[in-house]
Amino acid sequence: MKGKRIPIIAANWKMYKTISEMEEFLSQFLPLISDIEDRKVVIAPNFLCLERMVSISKGKNLITCAQNMYFEEEGAFTGEISPRMLKAIGVSWVILGHSERRHIFGEDDELIGKKVSSAVSHGMFPILCIGETLEERERGETGKVLKKQLKTGLSRLGAEGLKNVTIAYEPVWAIGTGKTASLSQIQEAHSLVREEIKKLGGEDIAEKIRILYGGSVKPDNVKGIMELEDVDGALVGGASLGVDSFIKIVKFDEN
Ligand code: PEP
């Protein structure tokens, strides 16, 4: 599928689930993915769940991912978590620049770029989220916005660093709203992202980088989305919270 790009199905649990609710989920979910080898399954729970999730999923086909981090290693940054702290508990994947971080917590492209660069320099694998608002789309600015978010978000990386990065295209108006972008809107945005990556890092990196789609992905729309040429996976919020719906998304080709 899609050359050598192995698909990634990633769950963003946002601020849901206690540690025991996470354990209950994994006790049902892990046996269901034990035979999967041809895709990566990622779950990003809240910070409190990370260490326990790493230990429960040891040797299993599940990658534990953080939802955010600060770019410094340590210091007077109350309330923040550093790449060093994540690495120390065995977490190497991190979502950065999610639209809720941008729009609720005021993160801008500069800050996100520093986080992406810090993650890569600590040997981590950031999932950089980008996406336009409804107003930006209606003004015809989708391409301009995505290019800026990519350029600034990745500006501190060389071609080598880009190899660690996954991009998630998540139109803000489709996140948690039940509105999915149309297949043509998704493919158009993903192909633009791949073109931009080609300009930033060259053809080889652009062919290898994975671009996930996020925004109201559900069991009944995932298959069509995953068939698009430049879609290499999904970042799933609401529909990842239940075992039944998330496993159907993970096994999108069996639906
Ligand atoms: C997300 O949180 O990244 C997301 C895409 O949420 P949802 O699937 O609920 O739209």
Describe what this molecule looks like in 3D.
With 255 residues, the protein is α/β, with parallel strands linked by helices. It has a single domain, classed as Aldolase class I (TIM Barrel, Alpha-Beta Barrel). The protein is 42% helix and 15% strand. The chain contains twelve helices and eight strands. Strands 1-2-3-4-5-6-7-8 form an eight-stranded parallel β-barrel, surrounded by five helices. α2 links the parallel β2 and β3. α5 packs across α7. The protein is globular and about 45 Å long. The structure holds phosphoenolpyruvate.
Give me the secondary-structure topology.
Layout: E1 8-12, H1 19-32, E2 40-44, H2 47-56, E3 63-66, H3 83-88, E4 93-96, H4 99-103, H5 109-121, E5 125-130, H6 134-138, H7 142-154, H8 159-162, E6 166-169, H9 183-201, H10 203-208, E7 210-214, H11 222-226, E8 233-236, H12 243-250
Parallel strand pairs: 1-2, 1-8, 2-3, 3-4, 4-5, 5-6, 6-7, 7-8
Helix pairs in contact: 1-2, 5-7, 7-9
The structure holds phosphoenolpyruvate.
